[in-house]
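G., the chain you wanted modeled:
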Amino acid sequence: MTKAQLNNAVKKVYTQYKNSLGGEATNEYFQWLDATIKPEIQRLYRADTSLKALSADNLRRLLSLNVSLRVIPFHQFGLMID
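Predicted structure as tokens:
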């Protein structure tokens, strides 16, 4: 995955999540989060654990997603950052 692909994928996941926030908290919504958004965040984080390829804005987006959804434990997020 190139830097551009990674940055675009983070933007895409972030906008999908932010656009979904206005609705009701139904069971289907949480199933969608567990099946779609959370695995994608894990995949993007594991694509570059040193976080070198991310721009500053996308690093903030990924951090914001992780704080909201707690996908990656806080004591492990950004452990290998350069």
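The CA atoms of residues 23 and 29 lie 9 Å apart.

Shout if anything looks off.
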